[in-house]
Specification:
This is SCO0607 family lipoprotein. InterPro entries: SCO0607-like. With 101 residues, the protein is an alpha+beta fold. It contains 2 helices and 5 strands; from the N terminus they run αβββαββ. The protein folds into 2 domains: 33 residues; 58 residues, no CATH class.
């Protein structure tokens, strides 16, 4: 049997390129994923006077000490614009937006 070192080297390089491509596609696909704040069938609520939050089933009222987010300022995904905003802001007992500081 005659060994063909050139083919072996080409095969190794091709295998390495293929493995790198698979890793790149996997990492790229995961990078675009955004986690929802609440599950389907739920909506987020904010802790009055604090930065805590919870999820409530659609059709149910927020529990005591929680309120709905103001319209147009509802976080939808973790680390979206409004999720970050509500880390430093909250609602007072009258529903006014205040600094959480």
């Amino acid at each position: 049997m005659i060994r063909r070192p050139f083919r072996t080297a080409v095969t190794r390089v091709a295998s390495g390129v293929l493995a790198s491509a698979v890793a790149l596609v996997t990492l790229t696909a995961c990078a675009g994923y955004r986690e929802d704040v609440c599950s389907e069938g739920e909506y987020p609520v904010l802790s009055v006077g604090g930065t805590g939050s919870a999820c409530v089933s659609n059709g149910e009222q927020p529990p005591a000490g929680f309120a709905r987010y103001p319209e147009g300022k509802v976080p939808r995904q973790v680390d979206d614009k409004w999720d970050k905003y509500w880390n430093t802001h909250t609602l007072d007992k009258k529903g006014n937006i205040i600094d959480a500081g």
